[in-house]
């Protein structure tokens, strides 16, 4: 269920009608992007825009969280203090499989399967070996309590994991210390931007369910790219800004099922697949594969899908010729 994104997609995206978003030129939904996109992407665009939202979110009873700091034009990509406060408030619950992070626990095997398969293909590893990521330096940006970092370490990666919330890092470190395989994870309360300044580089930069919480998504993508070695991998997952996402990921998950605390996701801050592709493209990362995650309420399981209208994950490759000053 992995979808390859051909290089020509990037040209098509860049030539499509655009609007300003955190500094990135992105397709303007009102310009019907499917008219300018490749057939393969048109299916994505039609899925996303069939539920295509107007630029203002649907009328909530009050499902919106705090406003993005700095109003419409923040210049600091991360962290967003209001978002940091939200996660600090529930930090104790990271490893409670029935707590607020239950959806992430349930999604974990599926997103790991995407990461394993894309990274193994890219780095020419055997996905069936016990430690397919052995020798790869991987960073988990916005790691929370470490529910993704730990299995990455078990797959053999040398893992650095960072989060803007100190309580998350403390909980992640304590949890990882109980197992020798995960005790080697380097946990640090910091931001991607700070590590860019330190000129840190990684073979794979992974940031799942974080971009929708940062103050400036484009600058965040630029930092993820700057942390990635040339020809390295960048993986981002998030929630689409679609009406379906509003209905399921916000209204159902936060208000009906109460999986997540109300206000966890702010609809207007969600990012579409086209926007992620363009922001990464602008940051010298080409999105090569994309997949959706769909939830089966009967089995309670998530699976990979072509449907990227709600939850999706993108795998990109950092261009080898880059003007980045951080590469040595
Ligand atoms: C929804 S959780 C996702 C956690 C983890 N990536 C996962 O999927 O299991 C978002 C995490 O991003 C962190 N976060 C938010 N903004 C951040 C930023 N600018 N830099 C680093 N971490 C950030 C939050 O503290 C929180 O732990």
From TrEMBL:
Compositional bias of kind Polar residues: 27-38
Documented EC number(s): 2.1.1.64, 2.1.1.-, 2.1.1.114
Protein keywords: Magnesium, Membrane, Metal-binding, Methyltransferase, Mitochondrion, Mitochondrion inner membrane, S-adenosyl-L-methionine, Transferase, Ubiquinone biosynthesis
Alphabetical list of SUPFAM superfamilies matching this protein: S-adenosyl-L-methionine-dependent methyltransferases
Membrane topology qualifier: Peripheral membrane protein
InterPro entries cross-referenced by the UniProt entry: SAM-dependent_MTases_sf, UbiG_MeTrfase
Listed name of the protein: Ubiquinone biosynthesis O-methyltransferase, mitochondrial
